[in-house]
Amino acid sequence: MKLTIDDVRSRFIKHLGGEPGYVYASPGRINLIGEHTDYNEGFVFPGAVEQGMIAEIRPNGTRTIRAYSIDLKDYDEFSIDDEKGPKASHFRYLFGVAREMMKLGVPVEGFDTAFAGDVPLGAGMSSSAALESTYAYAINDLFGENKIASMDLAKVGQATEHNYLGLNCGIMDQFASVHGKKGNLMRLDCRSGEFEYFPWEPKGYRLVLVNSCVKHELAGSPYNDRRNSCERVAKALGMPSLRGASMEQLEAIKAQISEEDYKRAKYVIGEEARVYAVCDALQKGDYETVGQKMYETHEGLSKDYEVSCEELDFLNDVAKDCGVTGSRIMGGGFGGCTINLVEDHLYDTFTKTVKEQFKAKYGKEPIVIDVVIGDGARRLC
Prior knowledge:
Layout: H1 5-16, E1 22-31, E2 43-44, E3 46-59, E4 64-69, E5 74-79, H2 89-103, E6 111-117, H3 127-143, H4 150-165, H5 172-179, E7 184-189, E8 195-199, E9 205-215, H6 221-237, H7 247-252, H8 259-284, H9 287-303, H10 310-321, E10 326-330, E11 335-343, H11 347-362, E12 367-370, E13 378-379
Helix pairs in contact: 2-3, 2-4, 3-4, 3-5, 4-5, 6-8, 8-9, 10-11
């Protein structure tokens, strides 16, 4: 994490005065495989990254949160007892987390806080989950005697998205932000909540994000529409979700559902199989298969789930032309990053080529981010 405690503390004292508080951090995340499967009760394969959010927090003995966003240079104060809460989304995350923690019986009080992040906004690395997890962890520590379990803290972040931001997301982003472990990816069963750590120490390969610096609107309709498609198909199949559905079952009801819903379900069913294949391949050290499945995921997200965009497809094509082992859209889509599995000896050529070709076509250079797998939510001081 490039941000330091001093970066946040100096602004905290400047804008909120008084004595220092306590400093907490949570990471953003990458996801190797398993995209848009979490809300279908499937499997995902994320890991926490070094970039994240840092917040200084000081209880103030009132019912009011006084908050300063360092990155946006914005201040607001709002009561935790106010049903409506603040208007600005970056403060609604804090408000929502506080309210959801109160529902779990935590005696939340007002606090003064300043926060900042070094997760690139709109990159699909889930800066919002990092922010939610920072405050869920902090509130549990400061007011809840750390009685709330880690998975419940992740669910607090998810409920904040649902109830205060209007995004009907799955659990993956918040799970990864809370449970991250340095040097490990995690396979999460989004139905049962069970997970296991997989050491991530690829010999001869590295994970590289290429940020298109393009972000189309994700919150609300486009994302929720796809979730609704999956739910309609599951209902037609007589199943609680698409988890465990087969292509044969989908073909049997093809005439009963719309072409759009069929395509959405086709992608999700295929993605479930790809997660299993990648897990098997990783245990064998077979990174060529991992990469092949990443390319298949991109194709499905682009053509069937339709959450790609021209810029992301272009980045994927450049990766393929450069001989990169695997590449795909990462995150909700509609912009953001591709995640790339790159052999060490191709790294310099690929990063140079992708910057030059993207700039030549779109007039701006993409940002290359080397992935370092880091720890989850924690108190820094």
